[in-house]
Prior knowledge:
Elements lengths: L4 H42 L1 H12 L21 H7 L21 H18 L6 H8 L3 H6 L9 H22 L10 H4 L3 H8 L9 H10 L11 H13 L3 H5 L9 H7 L23 H6 L3 E4 L9 E3 L2 E4 L2 E3 L1 H16 L6 H12 L3 H9 L3 E3 L4 H11 L13 H12 L1 H13 L3 H34 L1
Helix pairs in contact: 4-7, 7-10, 7-11, 15-16, 16-18, 17-18
Amino acid sequence: MEFSSPNSNSLHSREIKYRFKPITSKKSSAADAAEANHHVINIVEGNEDRFASMHNKISEPPRLLSMGAGRSTCCIFRVPESMVDINGRAYQPRIVSIGPYHHGKPQLRMIEEHKWRYLGLLLKRMQERGLELEDFFRAIQPLEQKARECYSETIQLSSYEFLEMMVLDGCFIIELFRKVGNLVPFEPEDPILSMLWILPFFYRDFLRLENQIPFSILQCLFDLSNMTEEKPDKSLSMLALEFFNNAMLRPDEVIAKYHDLKAQHLLDLIRASFIPSDQDHEPSKVRAQPRMLHPVSKLRRAGINITPGKADSFLVIKFRHGVIEMPPITIDDFMGSFLLNCVTYEQCHGSRTRHFTDYATLMDCLVNSYKDVEYLCERNIFENFFGSEGEVARFINDMGKETAFDIDNCYLAKLFSDVHQYYRNSWHVQWASFKHTYFETPWSFISALAALILLLLTIAQTFFTIYPTVREPDKS
């Protein structure tokens, strides 16, 4: 027992040491806090240059998305990366750069050389009126500041560089419009005309959101370069509409309605020409809450059919008596690029209506697979020059991704609501399901008819078997 007492003392001493640990820890924490406070003071005192740099960044205005990007006058935007990731190169010019965003890129140098050639041809004609290159600079110089404000990104070009780009790009576009419109002859063997692949790329590149210059610049250069002092036979808007109609193939009487249409740039001009005049302001008001639509395959089983509509624009869509009327649309490389850039333009420009976004959302609802595209092609709604039915379905579904859509305030709100109410009617669904099951194909109809005949024969056989038995007791 006495032998164990040293162990007891040892245990007791360990307990004492343990009890002192918290006290030691508190002292250490206080010391660390004092050192930390002292360290913060050193950071503040020793990094004046860093704080000066921070103050400079605070005072600098944003450049990649300038403060003016939210104004209604800003109309030429960089496409958000989220949309670029989905739709790839639909927003990038392929052969010609217009404006500052893609200015000077090496892969666009080929047409850049022809811009100077076209400018020289224009100046040669202008000598008859006594106009020189300097006159074009003087004409657009008062518009420089407003032109810069049209871009969502701060343009890092000097005043001379900016005006040179506006004159070169603007005169090239106008000269090309006049040549294609047969107002000015092409040079013999001009490669821009003789090489068939070039013009189709111009149609697409001139209507890319990042590849625009303000329409006011184009109008100023157009008025100055008019060969006569009288009003020209065709307005700039009409020349532009006719130029792009080589790809769209709309009736002449349709585009003639928009000969005096005003716009902020070429993409805005062509987009505005598709918006019906009775739908360009207020969205339609509905009583019931609109709902998203089901794909074509489900709508057909509910008795809702889709037929070609008759209208000047594919945006005019109607629903009545269980039928959706949709004007035909040609889906090809040009239309695909045009639709995507219009949707993106509406997403970026806060004061524009959302007609193309609403249309893209409707198409995304209706098309869920290649079978839906096949049906729309069979009904002459789609004229497909884009690719396979599966490729068209993927394009339509991607067009509606990463976009903001307000179903309550869209111009198709009433259509969404009416179709949903019709779809919920159980009688329509049951009757349509019966027709879809037994009358969809000739073979299903023949099978149903054979089953009906067999049923009638069975009833007749049963009747003639029972009837004599019932008659015999009456005779007795």
